[in-house]
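Action item from last meeting closed. Structure (455 res):
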């Protein structure tokens, strides 16, 4: 009888424990985002279908079968004709990039977003206590953080962190770094800069597992301003409620599913293997087992206790079975890494087209901008005036390693500021997300491919 009573009481005791844990976390932690600025490249960098074709044709190594693979991939990628390419690729120098190209690319994105961030927030560079810059594919000496400190003549006691190799999840890793610092130091202001070095990492070979990155990744970046000073709470746009990081690096298959290396012919690139969906499912499942009881309301926690034992790493769809994630979350900010990532996450969490719209439209308009992608999705929500005071936003990301990093935000006031979506938001949502590449270039055969290259 005592055992039966204990079994019945256990779920209630567990719920009480979680409620107390949340209360302590809310009291002790404070991380406000005051402002963010996404990068909008110059219009002459825009990748129309014709410009994409000219870049593809420049790779003399591609045979007809690889060309048709690229054709099919671009068409089904969910990316439109308004994304942007690095300057050296537009100018036809992707085969021989230089360090100068990489630094100029970073300077343009980082300084443009930071200039606007300081201007619009009213915060001076001398008021920044913590600086985190994340660029996965570029490590320089001095570091990129040092480059920022030098440009804005920041204080000598500023705490800087240069994050590399973390992939599309780097933004949330940087936020975690800032949050941990906020636990130690009071009344601090922090800046995070998230972007990626695309121009000097363009793949020039013909291995299909490497070619996918050229189809998905595009130019973009974002700078964000955070503070744990409660006196600035009235200026905050969102507040961090919870963040969770899951890492499957100990699993060899997951570790190697997204990998920077050289192909069999010696061409460097970023390899995306067929094991990626499985790794994502495993990481997402393990992540949600911890995340769910920390973010959903009490009525859903009881249901969580009943269904979580049925979740399996090999079946992502079971993650959302029996749970209503929208009972405590109004908005889902999924990293726009690709159509398969967005659709798979949406299916696993039983989300609607309305929930997935911001990620799908951000992918169509901007492409996969790596760690900066979240903020283009958030910008879409803001431009559509979806974000109201008290709303909860769940950010979901995947990254090389293999990682799944998620966090929950709370909207501090109705958001309706202008951003990079201002000039095009009236065109969205777009119902048909098929790129016209196939329609315009499906006629290519061996003879015409040779002819086009010669001309």
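Sequence:
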């Amino acid at each position: 009888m005592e055992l039966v009573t204990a079994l019945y009481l256990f779920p209630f005791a567990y719920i009480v424990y979680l409620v107390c844990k949340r209360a302590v976390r809310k009291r002790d932690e404070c991380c406000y985002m005051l402002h963010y600025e996404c990068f909008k490249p110059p219009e002459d960098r825009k990748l129309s279908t014709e410009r994409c074709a000219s870049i593809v044709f420049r790779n003399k190594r591609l045979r007809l079968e690889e060309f048709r693979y690229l054709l099919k991939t671009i068409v089904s990628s969910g990316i439109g004709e308004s994304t942007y390419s690095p300057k050296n690729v537009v100018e036809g120098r992707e085969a021989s990039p230089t360090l100068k190209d990489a630094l100029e690319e970073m300077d343009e994105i980082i300084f443009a977003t930071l200039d606007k961030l300081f201007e619009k927030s009213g915060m001076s560079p001398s008021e920044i206590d913590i600086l985190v810059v994340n660029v996965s594919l570029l490590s320089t000496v001095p570091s990129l953080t040092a480059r920022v400190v030098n440009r804005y003549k920041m204080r000598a006691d500023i705490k800087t962190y240069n994050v590399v190799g973390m992939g599309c999840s780097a933004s949330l890793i940087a936020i975690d770094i800032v949050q941990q610092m906020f636990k130690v130091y009071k009344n601090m202001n922090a800046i995070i800069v998230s972007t990626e070095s695309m121009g000097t990492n363009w793949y020039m070979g013909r291995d299909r597992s490497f070619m996918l990155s050229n189809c998905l990744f595009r130019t973009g970046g974002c700078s964000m301003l955070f503070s744990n000073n409660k006196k600035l709470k009235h200026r905050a746009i969102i507040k961090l409620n919870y963040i969770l990081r899951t890492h499957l690096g100990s699993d060899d298959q997951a570790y190697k599913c997204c990998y920077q290396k050289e192909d069999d012919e010696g061409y460097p690139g970023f390899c995306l293997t067929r094991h990626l969906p499985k790794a994502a499912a495993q990481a997402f499942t393990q992540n949600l087992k911890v995340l769910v009881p920390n973010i959903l309301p009490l009525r859903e926690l009881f249901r969580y206790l009943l269904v979580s034992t049925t979740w399996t790493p090999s079946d992502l769809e079971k993650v959302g079975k029996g749970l209503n994630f929208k009972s405590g979350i109004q908005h889902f900010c999924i990293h726009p890494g690709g159509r398969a990532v967005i659709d798979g996450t949406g299916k696993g969490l039983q989300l609607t087209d309305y929930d997935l719209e911001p990620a799908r439209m951000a992918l169509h308009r901007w492409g996969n901008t790596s760690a900066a992608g979240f903020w283009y999705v958030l910008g879409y929500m803001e431009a559509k005036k979806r974000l109201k005071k008290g709303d909860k936003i769940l950010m979901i990301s995947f990254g090389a390693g293999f990682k799944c990093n998620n966090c929950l935000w709370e909207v501090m006031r109705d958001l309706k500021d202008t951003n990079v979506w201002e000039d095009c938001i009236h065109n969205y949502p777009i119902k048909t997300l098929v790129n016209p590449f196939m329609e315009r270039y499906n006629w290519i055969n061996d003879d015409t491919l040779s002819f086009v290259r010669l001309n």
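Note appended to the action item: The chain has 16 helices and eleven strands.
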